[in-house]
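COMPLEX REQUEST
Ligand: nicotinamide-adenine-dinucleotide
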Amino acid sequence: MSVTHSFRENRSRAEEYLSRYAAGTIGHFIDGRWESPEDGATFENLEPAENQSVGNVALGTEQVMDRACEAAEAAFLPWASMNGAERKKLLNHFADLIEKRADEIALVESSDCGQPIRYMKQAALRGASNFRFFADKAPEAGNGLSLLQDHHTNMTMRVPIGPVGVITPWNTPFMLATWKIAPALAAGCTIVHKPAELSPLSATLLAELAEEAGFPAGVWNLVHGYGETVGRRLSEHRAIRAVALVGETTTGSHILRQGADTLKRVHLELGGKNPVLVFDDADLQRALDAVIYMIFSLNGQRCTSSSRLLIQNTIKEEFLSALKSRIGRLRVGHPLDPETEIGPLIHTEHMQKVLTYVEGAREEGAIVAAGGNRREDLGTGNYVEPTLITEASNDMRIAREEIFGPVLTAIGFDSESEAVTLANDSAYGLSGYLWTRDTGRSMRLARQLDAGMLWINSENNRNLSSPFGGMKQSGIGRDGGDYSFDFYMETKNICIAHDTHSVPVLGQ
Ligand code: NAD
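STATUS: Structure written out below.
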């Protein structure tokens, strides 16, 4: 895999892979065909390590999106009627193709979104395993229950809901797209994918693989462009039965509004301001490693990042001082360098936003205990120092809003109840992390904390069968395992009489 190669080797192979995107327009994939806009309208795709162009991308319009939705609609019935075993075979074949191009996927993804290659080398393999996991479930996805009564039997079955829209963000675009598309296709839905405009390359690669795998035309459609135009149109379109969005909370609200007239089913995986609670009885070394990993891996651009450290005051000084010295040793650098631990942020505007939060923290009276600046010595890329904010209070913006960058805000607490109050005093409720050796406390807090997902004495550990999703303004719905099929399928109830009951008689 890429990480075993040197920086120089990674760069030269990435350049080779990226050169073909620079050569022409990166097109839409609709109804089995690649297309570029007739009027030549495109937008430029910049990579974040040097802010150089990596090609022009077709700028989707409402008309283009309409055609994609209609293609998904036309392909739906044949795809939904294909038997599950055949779908399983095709999805597994698709996973094989992902694995064959794993190296390319890792390098393209890392170059396009700035995530360090040390993490992205897993992206393709995780994407493939998402497909294999749901492929295996395809033959039985329609199964239901049999509910016996004296005179009737109720039987449930699941059928695919219809064409679905999949709208994804830029932070780990390949993995997130596969996480949504795999269960949708396994369920028998057709899809229209609208990837983030800031990271269009791995979505393009996925559509190329879909073509190579031989999915029937219209089963997999890809439209590039802006959220406010093509994303909106996708969530409004009458042919689309459900929309799965991974994105910001405000985007989730837009989707709800835009989908209201056609009563879209929605699954929203949104932002977070996730607390990590460290009690003084915890294994502090493991806690320290996990706290650092969960905020600084993936450049802090991670929905489940533990961006609020709630630390018991008895160990606060000791823990923060260890944290500070480790932060000082984190390696910020080019995403293709295998040594890099923190890469550039996705876009200069996003970098500015992150830096503005740090400035705001100073103005509100918090201390910037580590980092806080752009790494100008690294050139023109969007590099930001890993940052620790201390002496913060939970009412400061730095503690309330999702920053989506390598910035950790630390707040002290005295008691268990104070820790819970602070943790829950947030508009969000995506994930939480709890560090304590006290099992009773773990169980109490598991019930009390507002989090769709809680990890106890662990960093984020993903199990494909487990439910993934958030509470409050972090989202609506869950996916993972059978939860995904509940979203991408309709449950029908069929009630069959045993011919033993009296049918009510009127008009005799
Ligand atoms: P974003 O909401 O700006 O964009 C996400 C997608 O929505 C993009 O494809 C965008 O074009 C599209 N979009 C924007 N406006 C739209 C509209 N009006 N209608 C339809 N589509 C629209 O998010 P982002 O900046 O790309 O990604 C970062 C966000 O994603 C963060 O808030 C992060 O927490 C969240 N995220 C959540 C999870 C999770 O599982 N909860 C996972 C990863 C990222």
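REMARKS: The first strand starts at residue 25 and ends at 26. The chain has two domains: 7-270+474-492, 275-456.
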